[in-house]
Specification:
about 475 residues; alpha/beta; Aspartate Aminotransferase, domain 2; Aspartate Aminotransferase, domain 1; 3 domains; seven-stranded mixed sheet; four-stranded antiparallel sheet; 11 helices; 15 strands; about 35% helix; globular; PyrdxlP-dep_Trfase; Glutamate_decarboxylase; decarboxylase
Length: about 475
Amino acid sequence: MSDSSGRLSKFMAQQNDGGDLDINPIFTRPGEATSYPADRFPSSESLPSTAYQVVHDQSMLDGNARLNLATFVGTWMDDEAVKLYTEALDKNMIDKDEYPATAAIEARCVTMMADLWNAPDPDTTIGTSTIGSSEAAMLGGLAMKRRWQHARKAAGKSTDKPNLVLSTGVQVCWEKFCNYWDVEPRFVPISYDHKVLDGYELEKYVDENTIGVVAIMGVTYTGMYEPVKQIAAKLDEIEKETGLDISIHVDGASGGFIAPFCQPDLEWDFRVERVVSINTSGHKYGLVYPGLGWVVWRSKDVMPDDLIFYVSYLGGDMPTLALNFSRPGAQVLLQYYLFLRLGFDGYQRVQQNCLDVAGYLAKEIAKLAPFELWNDGSDIPVFAWYLKEGASKNWTLYDLADRLRLKGWLVPAYPMPDNLDGLTVQRIVVRNGLSHDLADQLVAEIKTQVAFLDSLDGPMPREDSVTKQFTH
């Protein structure tokens, strides 16, 4: 083994055992140490180029983002956006006194999204940017809880047992919300007959302590829309029978930037009167680098004033509505850049292309004998499939995911929620950058790996003790 090969082997081994980190000899200088402690402060300084190379080399082990079909998060922006990003790296979103132009741009973005989502009066809505859609969702949940508390106190009733109704297909941020803010989650199970929360038997889950219902525009597990208008109609029936007036928060983390452009006639947003707030991810189909989220309320009167803090900070007095304080302002500028750069037509073309690629992939995968589609990618460009009963005794979708990973493709397999115990699905997320050509390559690779797995004369070895979970 050559000296350079030995160094590489030693370096790779040290990434796993927490030992010292070798420095490539090209960066050593007289008197410098030749290794860093991996998880302790070095005793002395190093040259910028040396520290850079160590971090650069370690991060080379990360995957290829364009072949990652597990994540919803955007991984590409054009050169002008990168230039703008570099120019704005030091902007602090909370410091509105130093960066008033950035603060004004944030407000414009909120108004533009309120208009996109058909708010009754976009110019008088309220909203904010956040680190991601998880923070935005929690702010929407907090506002619902606080409105419920105010109404209960005004009526002289207890506020001890708030609950939130949502489907078992929600993203893990909603479980965190309920845990962190002492709200009882009431999960409506999804099933083969009701693949999303659609209002079926909703009356069994709501009561006077229900702070609201969460409807998802793009279920994380499968990409399917939950029918907001249908859920609202069921809540209308419940109100007529019980007097309970229950609002809806729409988790539009993905669909908030798909439906307005590609399904404009679908009523899911503020056109539905029970919808009081919507969150979305700027860093998903908003097409911005991570991390950026948004939340917008129908009007200022549905945002409790006591959730807004007025602080004197860095020479200015300003309102703040967020869980975080200091946070990057650059992504807000990137969002506004894209709004101007693409406009409505540009977003429509980008998102429709993703839908077209998803539809093509779903159609090709449906042709393969072992598979059954759960959905076809016609809502957001995301779809899932599962193995037909008896399709194989020797392999599972986890094995197919592992085989594809060997070729660089990340196509996750994971169990569906509890009421679908035993059902494993595999899912593809089509983002901007997955071209038709790459889709053809993926289909070819799936066919190759399925053929390999079908050729086995015994079960694939696996670690049965490892629990397969997925919470993206």
